[in-house]
Amino acid sequence: MIKIDWKSMQRKSDKPFYRKTLVQTVLLYALFIGTIAVLGVVGKQEQTIRGKAAVGDCTTSPYDAAVLADKPIGYWQLSDADTVVKDCSIGKKHPGSYVGNPTTDKLSNGDPIKVFNGSSQYAQIPDSDDLSVNKTGVLTIEAWMRPDTLQFPRQEAEGYVHWMGKGKFGQDEYVARIYSKTNSAGRPNRISGYVFNLPGGLGAGSYFQDAITAGEWIHYAVVINNNEKSGAYPSGYTKVFKNGVQRDQDSLKEYNIVPQNGTEPFRIGTRDMNSFFKGAIGKVAMYDYELTPAKLLAHYQARSGSSLTPSLVTPTLYCLGSCPTGTVAPSATVIPPSQQVSVSPTQSVPTVTPPSEIAPTAAPCEGTTSVQKHTSKHHNIGQGFLKRLLGFLTWLLNLLEGLLQGRTAPPPVSGDTPPCPSTPTPTESAPTEAVSPSAAPTSSSLVPSVAPTTDPAGSTNSCALPNYPNPICTGVPAGTSLATVNGDVTLSTPGQVYEGKHVTGSIFVAAANVTIRKSQIDGNVVNHQNGDPKFTIEDSTVGKEGSCTKDTAIDESNYTATRVKVLGHGDGFGDSGVGNILIQDSFVKLCASDASYHSDGVQGYLGGTNVVIRHNTIDQRPAAIGATAPVFMSDQSKDADVQDNLLAGGSETIRVYYFGGKDIVKNNRVVDKSWVYGPVSSSCSNITWSGNTLVTIDANYKVTSTVGPLACAN
Length: 714
Description:
By secondary structure, the protein is α/β, with parallel strands linked by helices. It has two domains: 56-320 and 330-339, Sandwich (Jelly Rolls); 468-709. A twelve-stranded mixed sheet has the order 17-18-21-24-27-30-33-36-39-42-45-46, with no helix packed on it. The protein is 12% helix and 31% strand. Helix 3 packs antiparallel against helix 4 (293-302). It starts with 5 loop residues before the first helix and ends in a 5-residue tail after the last strand. The protein is elongated, with a radius of gyration of 33 Å.
């Protein structure tokens, strides 16, 4: 057995070594326990911050007080110094996060807000039922926005940016949009708000389109109301406000919009990462009811504490070519001079120089968009906590090293990024609503509303092939006496024949197998009640000569139109959802040369099927950039049969896109050089295309020459 003399092996120097080692061990253990405790506190604090805005995080200006007094369900001032988007509403239920570290600037009243770089930065609020229209049927959203450019660097193909909203393709809900000054739709810097059906397609929306400057602050508000219904707005409406004044209102029924609940976050600075806003946004508030115009005006005025009432005059407008004197955009409401309020222009719009932007270290590209869409709901949550944790661990390591080497401990590192240093005259009117005496229209004595006319071709059948319909051989036959019916009419008797009337409003078809014959309808004819009941309209005129409305003349499915003349409408015939439409021997002269109308002769949307467009004349001249096409079959529409028509105008004249079924485009005549971009844009490989030609015509729509064959073009 070997005996070790430990005592003899010890040196005098060993005692300090063991003592030092013991101290280090105790110190490390204490630091470990302390770290666990601190991390628990930090994590708890971070969780508290994510759950509600801490004291001092939210500004308390007069503007904030005005907003909070109206009880928003979410109020994101975007005044945050860290990566957490605080909800400054009373409930504080909807905090979120920033992506890409947007910089900080100031609103004109001095309150901090965020500046987004236009390529990758945004804020997002996790999905919640509260943030969807159908929770209560109503949403009002307001915000201050400052575009720092008029031409956005990362935009959608048509030239617009979704700067705020909720949704993506297949999960569409609502969006705020701004167009670049130059865009393919001819909508320079238009600002709008849209609501969609969840699967997508065309949306219902309202807009204003004024001349703006980079760096200009704009108070924006959009209302989506699916609850308030009337004859003019049978399923609700959208409204848009600029600087506290209502500028436009549109019907949800126009595109059969039924808001639904999606799963995407609510985003600010983008909606779905396909386009990004370059500029400043702040004070985003959301309400689950409709704010009155007076409330929104009060909010606008509260920014500077002013009680100034905006001057009620027509705003500056863009137009294509030279603008005629007194031109007014369709969205502008003109106030009679007797109702205008005269005010002194004492409140000026501050000139703001766009701040320099910080280039992103890894800007998203098209190849990563889909990944971002799937991961964005949880992206960046807890980033502030990780930064604090890394900072604290760095301090602990430095402390340990300093103690062992006899140095003084450095101060803690917070890990937070320090904040960066840092009007147009609108139009207003009281809301008006059309009266719809649908139950008991009043009739006057019979009057010869249609004077006898002479067929320019000298023959009663001159519109038959090889000729085409014109204003003479369509519409109410010459010499027909019409009884005037004032206001709107609802036809609710199955099999009813409605003949020889001059309806000064619109006709709502609410029963099956109704026939409208030899009548003049100044408004439009629609069958959106009671499941789109089948109806026939023949030898009738829809719309008035010399007027122009964005409404669709005849809509929306299960109808036959024969020898109908359409005048004074931006859209001729609509095909929505069901289809089963026959349009034949009819004449359409669209009035919408204004680019804002997105005019169509026949428009298929929301999956309408079995649409026959045979031997009609559809004239969309003069061609406008914003116009779509005389024949536009898109948005899941299929089984279109387009034959023997005379077509003119549009961005492209024939647009038939394949979504299944069997599409036929044969023996049509397209007026040469009547379009903006080209005669055709269609799914050539999937449709039957033959016998189509380019022609010239005279003033009576007679073909004067054949220019040559018309090939299909994708």
